[in-house]
Amino acid sequence: MLDPAPAGADSAPSSLAASHRRILVIAAMLGGTTVLVKLVALARDWLVARRFGAGDELDAYLVAFLIPSYAVVVLTHSFAPAFVPTYIRVSERQGPGAAQRLVGSLMVGGCGIVVVISLLLAAVARFLLPWVGQGFDAQKLALTESLFYLLSGVLVISGASAIFAAVLNAHERFAVTALASMAIPAGTVGVFWTFQDRWGIYALAGGTLVGFLLESCVLAIAAGRHGLLSRPRWSGFDENLRHVGSQYVPVLMGSSLMTSSLVVDQSMAASLGSGQVSILNYGNKIVALVLGVVAVSLSTVLFPRFSRLIASDRWADLRHTLKSFTRLILIASLPVMILLALLSEPLVRLLFERGAFTAETTTAVSGVQRWYLLQIPFYVLSMLGSRLLSAMNGNRILLAIGAMNLLMNVVGNLAFMHWFGVNGIAMSTSLMFLVATLTTFAAIRYRLADARRGASDRTRSAN
């Protein structure tokens, strides 16, 4: 069962400050775990860069994996924002039995949905891939299609993983979910290292599939050890399941719009010529490492806390928590962004420049990376804000923000690509996150004001 804080806990400034320090300690531990995961991922990227550089085979793999990874992000990563607040509320108000029934129903319904979607994607792949891989010749498209069919199993596996991870995070078992993700690059490295000479690029695709399967097994074992593994069993479409569904649909649509930016970016990069998709991908590696350590760790730890503060109507504590962490993010992230921008080319040279990855590729990648680095403070803030809006049942607002982001990204890409090539795509992404942050926090301010008015009305009615 969850261990919610008492209604009056953290009300005093000293208690609230102590709570914030505890959040930072947990986030730092989670960030350290994420660093280990990212280091294993960098080892994978180092092996891939040495073998394939920025050429046609890697372009084909990246475009083939683009659709399954997009579906994973949209379908499974959207699950936690819709599920966790409802799961916490049901566990606290109706007991752990009702929460277990909710999870059992979601395992049956959710996994069934991702199987159907995986089959549909496989059926339309030959029509969809030429659009995503625009600029690919017939031979490169054929390779992309065969890799896609191998990688499409990732979506089915990720459906179960998303449920296990969301339940563990709701119970603040953050470390195990972070460590489990290490299985993806580790499994990829193991298979790729062993079979790269025999299978070539197919060893990379096969390793990716094995890595996702290993992650799901680790999460299932961890959930079982903590007594959180529910038996898949359909208990009917009750009120709790309907509430998850009502929150999931706008999250899903918003995530699909936001994640479409990744598809748009790589598709537009493919139109710029051979190797441009790979250059864009490498240029985001170090940035993704920083964002994974900071943004994902902090938002993962704060999300259940936001949900509990809202469930207990502790709006003053919620506002104080938001202001404190917003200030901290800005103070900490700006120096990191500047330092990494100054060291961009030496870092790329140190990590990737060997084998097929040449000095010319280093120059191109470091330029893209500098523009991507500008998004760091805004990405972290927008993720924090989106988690708070989800906890406040503001997922329809996030849907509107996602639509705006996609439109901005497409227009920005078209404008900046014309003048700056692949660098323009990175410029557009950073600008998009700046606007997304401003819009998200404006929406939060409105929702908090509305909640304060509602609390005042309830107080007057009670008196």
Number of helices: 18
User: Which outline best applies?
Assistant: globular
User: Structural class of the secondary elements?
Assistant: mainly alpha
Distance between the termini: 35 Å
Q: What's the pLDDT, averaged over the residues?
A: 82
Give the C-alpha Rg: 22 Å
Task: List how many beta strands DSSP finds.
Answer: 0
Report low-confidence residues grouped into runs of 5 or more.
1-11
Q: What level of helicity do the residues show?
A: over 70%
How is the quaternary structure best described? Answer: single chain
Q: What is the beta-strand fraction? A: under 5%
Topology order in helix (H) and strand (E) letters: HHHHHHHHHHHHHHHHHH
Description:
The structure is a single chain. The protein is mainly α and 463 residues long. It is built from 18 helices and no strands. It has helices at residues 13-52, 56-76, 79-94, 96-132, 138-151, 153-170, 174-180, 183-199, 201-225, 239-270, 276-283, 285-311, 315-342, 344-352, 359-373, 376-391, 395-420, 422-462. Helix 2 runs antiparallel to helix 4, helix 3 (79-94) packs parallel to helix 12 and helix 6 (153-170) runs parallel beside helix 9 (201-225). It is globular and about 60 Å long. It starts with 12 loop residues before the first helix and ends with a helix. The model is unreliable at 1-11 (pLDDT under 50).
Brief characterization of the structure:
With 463 residues, this protein is mostly helical.
Give the topology:
Layout: H1 13-52, H2 56-76, H3 79-94, H4 96-132, H5 138-151, H6 153-170, H7 174-180, H8 183-199, H9 201-225, H10 239-270, H11 276-283, H12 285-311, H13 315-342, H14 344-352, H15 359-373, H16 376-391, H17 395-420, H18 422-462
